[in-house]
Amino acid sequence: MSEFKQVTIEEMEAATERLLETAARVGADTYQVRVKNQSPHCKFGEQGVCCRICTMGPCRITPKAPRGICGCDAHGIVGRNFVRFTAGGGATHSDHGREICFELMAAKPEGPFKVSDPEKLLRIAKEWDVETEGKDIYDLAHEMAELAAMEYGKVRGFQNWIKRAPEHTQKLWIDNEVAPRAVDREVSTCMHMTHMGNSSKAEALVRQSLRMGMADGWGGSMTGTEFSDIMFGTPMPVDTEANLGVMKEDCVNIVMHGHDPSLSEFIVNLSDSPEMLARAKAVGAKGIVVSGICCTGNEITMRRGIPMVGNFLAQENVILTGACEAIVVDVQCIFPALGPLTKCFHTKFYTTSKICQQPMSEFIHFTTDNAMDVATQIVEEAIDNFKNRKKDLVHIPQLKAKATVGYSVEAIVKQLDTVTNSQVDKTGTTLPLIECITSGVIRGAVAMVGCNNPKVRPDYLHIELMKKLIANDIVIIASGCSAQAAARAGLMDKAAKEICGAGLKRVCELADIPPVLHMGSCVDISRMVVLASELAKDSGLNISQLPVVGCAPEYMSEKAISIGNYVVATGIETFLGVDPYVSGSSEVTEWLTSGIRDWVEAAYHIYEDHDLDRMTQGMIDCIEEKRAAIGI
Ligand code: BF8
Ligand code: SF4
Fold it and tell me: Does 470 score more than 70 pLDDT?
């Protein structure tokens, strides 16, 4: 095993500073400049007490003006804003999942969309009581994709996936009216409830926010995850690298950004082809490097070992290297700054989805009918663009860390099978992990998720929280930009066991895993709630009794709040390092941080000051309290 090499936050910040010098040279605008221009932020907006739901407003709540023109108070305004924030996130994740269903409907044995994991397809068909006997696998795939898409608009009943949760949890959801109905219906209900003159009661608004989040996590996101696995393969451990140094100066660099794994899969395949390599050599490049940012990056690293060049706030840095021939985006988390920024360099900026159309980009509509043509055009044009580099602008910071990624629930269970040495057959279960937890070798687990955010020192909380937690024998499962922060810092290197507590270090050695497990993209947080459900079923405990917490220390997006709502509603205490614009209402805050515990056995912990030590201690205390409560 090689020696552990961490990449520090200071090294990453120094690299960014160097790239900002290039930005200044070419007169480019960057987020660091725009943060200054936007500061200080509007206090009404920050507290969530501004309403512009009707044209009698906008109304802003102050001590002198405690009600809007219609009479709505701060609790109603904050609550309505929170519902709409959640609906934005839930709709976004879920629509991504729907797109995956349409792609699976177009799958054919000859490709390009194929069934890569027929075993998973059969397993889900059985779960959904669909007859599989004697059916062609592609016929079954089309039937299942159709059924999954119908879930978005089903007239009656709850999302199919909730049957995966322990019965106790399902009952809580149904009894407390947070069990998710059709995804589209929950989005509509959010918009209807928050129209002028409808709900203004904090309790009702918080309840609908949870149900909306549930339709995401136990609906659209789970569909996105599971059906992507069927099409592109269920992730298994694979070695890769992370940070800006994965780009190579003597190669054509193509960066994939966004969330949908489809186009990037084809681009990865093509970039390995002899024809494209020959084309690259012909323009003087040694090869082609495809790397990823944000959740598209997570999807292709988990399945293909493609390196992660950065996360959300690194998207401008990639272009500032001067060595990016093409940045190819699909949907979500794409800075509208990329258009103007790429124009300062030779970089081509491709938008490919009608959902994400941006000025100063080249729009090539990617569909199931033209998938390979689009991928070919982009790779060829990127290669041909190599010669247009402005050589004096090229600077790739030499920061790079090793990572092992690909820990789907299936991969974790398989990995655990290798360490089972007891008489009882525990194959295919989470029991070995439960034993590590009950014996105290591992104290518990934290699910670290979400974005980075200039309001917080970017990536600092992700990385430093994880380091402190693993030093305290707490294993981390991570996804989204949090996972990429960990990978860039080296925490997904198996050698990172060196900075773990003795117990976790031992487990990492025995199971041959890093202490921070990459579970995928943000829609893959659905994997985390499935894992929690499996742990609960295998241990006989309720999810809320497990020494497991969730944490989004630096999040910025509506999607993250939708996630927070389903994680908490699943029974997992959830720590936020940024206030979701609810501080303006004591009632909404009280419901979120305490009241909802009566419905779902968990609540939020909001750390508006995003203090590292307080957050670390808060999570450790929560885990230890849960251990004490079950007598371990
Ligand atoms: O869905 S963590 S910045 S990339 S929203 Fe976006 Fe946030 Fe990153 Fe993935 Ni998730
Ligand atoms: Fe103002 Fe009420 Fe209209 Fe909101 S709904 S803008 S609070 S009048």
Answer: yes
Tokens 């898409």 correspond to: 149
pLDDT band with cut points at 50, 70 and 90 for residue 3: confident
- Ligand 1 site, residue 480, Cβ cutoff 6 A: yes
Atom of ligand 2 nearest to the CA of 54: 3
* Average of per-residue pLDDT values in the chain: 97
Rounded CA-CA distance 273/9 in Å is 36
Q: Give the amino acid at 181.
A: R
Lowest-pLDDT range of 117-126, 252-261, 341-350, 417-426: 417-426
Distance 441 CA to ligand 1 centre (A): 32
Task: Say which ligand is closest to the CA of 308.
Answer: 1
Q: Please give the C-alpha separations between residue 591 and each of 169, 202, 514, 583, 618, in angstroms, as whole numbers.
A: 20, 8, 37, 12, 19
C-beta of residue 200 within 8 angstroms of C-beta of residue 72 = yes
- The two beta strands, 50-51 and 59-60, are antiparallel
**Measured distance CA(167)–CA(170) in Å, rounded:** 5
Q: Among 324, 264, 269, which Cα is nearest to 295's?
A: 264
At 101, the amino acid letter reads: C
Average pLDDT of the segment spanning 396-416:
96
- CB-side exposure of 202: number of CA atoms within 13 Å? 17
Provide the greatest CA pair distance for the chain.
72
Is residue 285 within 8 A of residue 388, CB to CB? The reply is no
Q: Which of 67, 72, 200 to mutate to test the pocket of ligand 2 (most atoms within 8 A of CB)?
A: 72
* Interval between CA 530 and ligand 1 midpoint (Å): 20
In the structure encoding, which two tokens stand for residue 625, read together?
């309290």
HEC profile for 121-134? Answer: HHHHHHHCCCCCCC
Residue nearest to atom 7 of ligand 2 (CA): 68
Predicted model pTM = 0.97
CA-based torsion, 219, 225, 226, 232: positive or negative: positive
For CA atoms 25, 26, 30, 36, the dihedral sign is positive
Write the pLDDT tens digit of every residue in 427-438.
889 999 999 999
Residues contacting residue 606 through CB under 8 Å, at least 6 positions apart = 576, 579, 580, 582, 589, 592, 593
Q: Which residue has the tokens 């003597």?
A: 250
Tokens 């003087």 belong to which residue?
A: 284
Nearest to 401 by CA among 632, 566, 612, 246: 246
Phi and psi of 69, rounded to 5°?
-60, -35
Q: Which residues contact 361 (CB under 8 A, 6 or more apart)?
A: 329, 338, 339, 349, 350, 351
Distance between CA atoms of residues 436 and 515, nearest Å? 14
Atom of ligand 2 nearest to the CA of 51: 4
Cβ neighbors of 41 (< 8 A, separation 6 or more) are none
DSSP 222-235: HHHHHHHHHHH---
Residue in the block written with tokens 């999607």: 559
Look at strands 288-293 and 308-310 and give their pairing: parallel
pLDDT at 56 over 60: yes
Cα–Cα distance, 519 to 479 (Å, whole number): 5
Question: pLDDT tens across 189-235, in order?
Answer: 999 999 999 999 999 999 999 999 999 999 999 999 999 999 999 99
